Amino acid sequence: MPQRNPDALLRKLRSESATERLEAARFFAAHATAAEEQALREAAARETVTWIKSALRRAVARVSPTAQPAGSLASVDTDELPKGFAAQIFAEALETTTAQLLHEVEPILGSLRLSAEGEVANFAQSNTKQNLDRLDEFLSALGRLRRAASAPKIDEFALDVAVGRCIDELARPQGLRLLRAGPTPCVVDGDSSLVSLSISNGLRNAVEATVAANAPLEDVPITVSWGATDIDYWFSIVDQGIGFKGVIQKAFDIGSTTKEGHLGMGLAIVQQSMESLGGRVTLVPNERGVRFELRWPKKAG
């Protein structure tokens, strides 16, 4: 059963809590319908907090092409913000900034690739193509980061089915086994795309770490499990790979990586996805390998 309740979210726009107002405004920025346009316009007119007003203007623009653009965002002293509001502001800034960057850069990169294909000799084997491919990968990662920062759309979905789909889509070497342990069916509530995005990132990291350990693949299976407690849902991956080198907390910073040729966006995307759901991601080094765990609350959002 969908958890979206427009009436409840519209009431939040009148809340004295800036955190609740921003939560609702960001949701409507991604999911507003024409039925809510007038209420959103009224909320934007009375709103005094810049970040909330910006999200409301984007919500109005979503259903009204003639609406004014959101405009620039002012600086905010995060020390004076209520609990949870700073995280909402960060997500709002991340989403709007990456959206603008993608909007400006993607057409330029497309034109550059077309020109290079016609002007660079032996383009397919050139360094120019490799560098353009790298830029494409970066923009794709930015797109995933933007999605992770967006307001979640909460629905019921089968976690076991989502896990199976991510495993089926995973590229892995022959001989590497993935062991599954979890209830079927396992119906949860959350944003299935954000959860799947996080699961896929975790699986890729586990496969890469396992291959890098140079052990016989049949001896180092990856264990994937999932389930629910009385308060939250969880998913975990335990690998027997090379383990994690460095400071765990820094692994979640954008651009942080210990792997040559990697963009360092994967765990940052996972962390933002979980924060958007009110959850968390943890990495726990084991004697051999790492345990990767996602948790998000029941009735998230």
From TrEMBL:
Catalytic activity: ATP + protein L-histidine = ADP + protein N-phospho-L-histidine
Top-level taxonomic group: Bacteria
Record key words, sorted: ATP-binding, Kinase, Nucleotide-binding, Transferase
Signal peptide: none
Coiled coil region boundaries: none
Tagged with keyword Cell membrane: no
Source organism of this protein record: Bradyrhizobium hipponense
Protein name stated in the entry: histidine kinase
EC number annotated for this UniProt entry: 2.7.13.3
InterPro entries noted in UniProt: 2C_sensor_his_kinase (IPR050980), HATPase_C_sf (IPR036890), HATPase_dom (IPR003594), His_kinase_dom (IPR005467)
One GO MF term: ATP binding
EC top class named in words: transferase
Segments forming domain Histidine kinase: 100-300
Keyword ATP-binding in record: yes
Entry GO CC: plasma membrane
